[in-house]
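Session log. Operator J.P. requested a structure for one protein chain; no other inputs attached. Running the standard single-chain path with token output.
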Amino acid sequence: MATSGWDDKTVIGSKANRATTARGNTAINSVARSGALQGERKISQANKAHVGTDHQRIAKLDRENEVAPPPKVAPSVGKAMMTARQELKLTQKDVAQKVNEKPSVIQDYEGGKAIPNPQVLGKLERALGVKLRGSDIGKPLAKPGAKK
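Structure written below.
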């Protein structure tokens, strides 16, 4: 290692000549004209996500495999509930207390927004005296013990 003397200058933070990467076509062309071009030209693409169509096929598969939302209560069930409740002169809150559910559940069933639950529908049928399941929705519920 060489020793430095009193007369030698040490410059801190000076930038030595380093090899730089040419960016853009004009810089590459000027380097090529000067003859200092080394290696091959690399052609890069701006957005590599759009190179192939594999991602499109994968997205399509994902859409096909999605689980369908559960079915909602038919509007005829809500109408049958509403008419039976009004005939009995009950509010949604009264019906909710009879079937031991929240008033929002009754509101969802009448509005056709609820996911059908057989237990809740059974309780509502008994409380309102109206069929809410099957093909004869809205007809009076048969009394227990009565034969068809």
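Operator note: The helical segments are 25-34, 54-65, 75-87, 92-99, 103-111, 118-128.
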